[in-house]
Amino acid sequence: MTKRIDCTGLSCPLPVVETRKALKDLKSGQSLEVVVDTGTSKENVTRLAKSEGFEVSAPVQDGDQFIITITKP
Amino acid sequence: MEKVKSFFKTNYLVILAGLLIGVLASLLQKLGNPKNMGICVACFERDIAGALGLHRAAVVQYIRPEIIGFVFGAMVAAFIFKEFRPRLGSAPIIRFILGFFAMVGALAFLGCPWRALLRLAGGDGNAILGLLGLAAGVGIGVIFIRNGYNLGRNRKTHPAAASVLPLIMLGLLLLLIIKPVLSSGAVFFSSEGPGSQHANYLAALGIAMAIGFAAQRTRFCTMGAIRDVILMKDFHLMSGVIALLAGAFVMNLILGQAHWGFSAQPIAHTNQLLNFGGMLLAGLAFALAGGCPGRQLFLSGEGDGDAAIFVIGMIVGAAFAHNFTTAGTPWPNNPTNWGWSTAAIIVGLIFCTVIGLTMRKAVD
Fold it and tell me: What pLDDT sits at residue A2?
């Protein structure tokens, strides 16, 4: 099951802090969806996940929001 | 070697933005801005407060077009790249007071983080204490963040609400161009001291808009740079900050603007307790508010009403700092008001600590 966290409306660095917390519980093959609503959060979350060795899909725009899917290899 | 290549590939834009800021800030000094103060967000907002008569320190009153340009440049970038997003409502009163105390701390040191870097690039050793204080303050902020500190979510708002600060900036620009003289004496423009030293306003506005544009695109933030290194060992923003320092340093050498030492530095003092303590408070307030003073202006330009409230808090804080003599005084050292500066820093640190400890409700 894919877990989802809502980081909309959160200012820097909370989206990254919340994502990092959620990534710790991820098992191999599992995915996490992170919902953000600023370009800054989109870039920061993507950079964090990549730097920690996760697979990151291209963010999908849904209205004012972006959904980033992060998978543990 | 591969690691170095990969680092530059990931970070070259923020490095270029940092270089641009450093070089242009140094150039602004050559064009007339005060020494080691090509750009200082705190000092320049303080000058605006003075121009409006919110404080009456006659030597620091001028409507600085750099502040206006930062907001406009960021707004242009946000519109072009479809990132203008009106938002508001994340603990605005707390952001106001954080802006207030951030300014009180910065003015005790005599500069924002950008100026701390520019002072160091100009050879002012006192800036080292300021930067150490800044890092320590951000470090304390990171401890609060790790323990759940947050100011809650913002909400989408009307474009009109997000346009308030850009419109205030437009009003300030008109006052700068028209220079009306009212019976009260306003608008106040310094005839001597740092406030009287400025580059041509169109050049300053243009340079600031270019910086605002670049900084909005790269999310340039000096506080964020330190925070990300401590919190996540992420050197992305820090690479831009180091580039700013390097750009200003090289440019200062080329222009003959570097003078090494601690005493007799331009618009600086050698009370290292105040240099460290002032920036300790400022760094903590920036960390709790999520951005350095420059970043708060860029966020305001892209529609963040909470950042705009922080900016207004800084301007009010500047007025307080001068009216209540908590701002540092430039060389030669004048200990008369050091007690007031120290008291204000202590009050600010207590406030920030209480905020950091009590606003920890889990994000819903």
Answer: 82
For the question of residue A7 being annotated catalytic, the response is no
Q: A9 and B154: CB-CB below 8 Å?
A: yes
| Residue A70 phi, psi (nearest 5) | -115, 130
Q: Does B155 touch chain A (CB under 8 A)?
A: yes
Spatial contact of A35 and A5, defined as CB atoms under 8 Å apart: yes
Q: Are B62 and B195 in contact (CB under 8 A)?
A: yes
Does the distance separating the beta carbons of A13 and B145 come in below 8 Å? yes
Give residue-wise pLDDT tens across range B214-266: 999 999 999 999 999 999 999 999 999 999 999 999 999 999 999 999 999 99
Q: Is the pTM of this model over 0.90?
A: yes
Tell me the domains of chain A and their CATH numbers. 2-71 (3.30.110.40)
Chain centroid, CA B277 distance in Å:
17
The phi-psi region of residue A53 (left if phi > 0; otherwise alpha if psi is between -120 and 50; otherwise beta) is left
Check if the beta carbon of residue B330 is closer than 8 Å to that of residue B267. Answer: yes
- CA A26 from chain centre, in angstroms, equals 12
Q: Mind listing the pLDDT tens digit for each residue in B5-26?
A: 878 778 999 999 999 999 999 9
Rounded Cα distance, B111 and B96, in Å? 19
Residues in chain B: 364
Cis peptide before B59 (omega within 30 of 0): no
| pLDDT tens digits, one per residue of B149-173 | 999 999 999 999 999 999 999 999 9
Of A2, A4, A12, A62, the catalytic one is A12
Question: How much is the ipTM here?
Answer: 0.93
